[in-house]
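Dear colleagues,

As part of the handover before I leave the project, I'm documenting each prediction I ran so the next person doesn't have to rerun anything. This entry is a single chain, and its sequence is reproduced below.
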Amino acid sequence: MEFDVVETKSAEPTEAICETETAIIGEKTNKGRRAVSWIFGFIFYATLLVTIVVVAYTYSGENGTPRDILGYSVMTVLSDSMQPVIPKDSVVLTKRTDENQINVGDNVSYLDENNNAITHRVIAIIEDYSESGMRGFQLQGVASPKPDSDIVYANNIIGQVIWHSVRFGQVMGFVQLNWMYIVIAGGLLMALMVTLRIFFRSERQKSPDKYCLSQNGK
């Protein structure tokens, strides 16, 4: 017995199948683009934040004193008087603290009579110093052989040291020397991120239709 062999050809995608496959492709494409958009957004805002921090750190406040931002100040240790606890060239972050919360053993930054910021350790506290109604703090560098010559009034305390890093200090030293180039580079990077986001957004409507056109053109 013989059977006729009938050759069949795959049917062309119908409009319904094309729409379904287009929806699937569109969904996958949108997920990928959302991920890329999130990455670009993160880089954009991270760059903006770093640029703001660089500018704020580079410029000091009035009379050369460290700039106070929401009670926090950043400064660089220029001497080795706090070795090995806080090495020279370290960046220290201080937090403005109530004078009654400062204790013996705390590391603090203060302004001397020439408005220089100095970071030393509290070794003694004098209540109502010179009948001023304020505490007086006796300070000394960890590596210094003797205490500082002057008692520091509470209103000259910048803040208590809450963090420090010599590695970060080296990076910020480079930033201070090249801050203008860094700000320009940050601005160019942000402009690039905006351009890429606009480009991908304009392409979002195109790719799903390309699939159907290629299938219908076979």
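The domain at 63-169 is CATH 2.10.109.10 (Umud Fragment, subunit A). The chain has two domains: 15-56+179-216, 63-169.

All the best with the project,
I.
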